[in-house]
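The material for today's practical consists of a large collection of protein records. Getting from the letters to the tokens is the skill we practise here. To make this concrete, we reproduce a full record directly below:
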Amino acid sequence: MRKTLKNSRRSPLAAIFVIAAGLILSGGGYAVATSAVENTTANTAISAQEQIKEGERLFLANCATCHGVNGVGTAAGPTVIGVGAASADFQVSSGRMPGQASGPQMPPKPVQFTEEQIAAIAAYVGSLGVGPSIPTADMLEANGDSSRGGELFRINCAMCHNAAGAGGALTEGKWAPTLKGVSAKHVYEAMLTGPQNMPVFNDANLTPSDKKDIITYLAYIEANPSAGGYELAGLGPVAEGLFLWIFGFGLIILITMWLGAKSN
């Protein structure tokens, strides 16, 4: 018996059988894995195409009046070719678009679409030309350097949005909105796309790390109240000076009048 097994192991046919079995198993496994990957990729591509098609339908029904068929733009609205999915996502998910009326600036209003519809519109606009993509979740985490973010914010943003992100008036009826209560996603997309009067801060101007630091700074000042007490909405020295003139000096004048009347 032992001799028979020993002879079979040494037989050239046994070696050929083992090699053939190994080739069949490895080849079959590779074919199955490749087929699964190809099916997954195909399903993803079909899903993406369906989303873009749905976005096109929504765009034609709600946006093409101003932005034109295929996003080429009209006299009533600019082209959206090349603005990227991030721009469409910001404008629609913040309620600024579709616009209800023309004016110096589009004010936010209640959002008119579901998250799925917004994603579809953004996908369609993104397919019209190369532009900024929607930031991923890891890009929006407020785990950067808040001190450095504050420095970057004061250099690049405070002249319009105020050092505390409270917003402020601009020219010709325009304004820089407050950043309190604004999501990290919208802050990042605004820096990336430069909506309305805001300049574009692409990755060459402010790197993704810089943007994360700014988001961290805004989250910090929103979570930590002013150490000096009531901040008068954080509007700066004009509001503080006005408060002093009206209430501070007003109180001094009233006290002076009261003392004068009492002495008489």
Notes: Residues 12-62 form the longest helix (51 residues). DSSP finds ten helices and two strands in the chain.
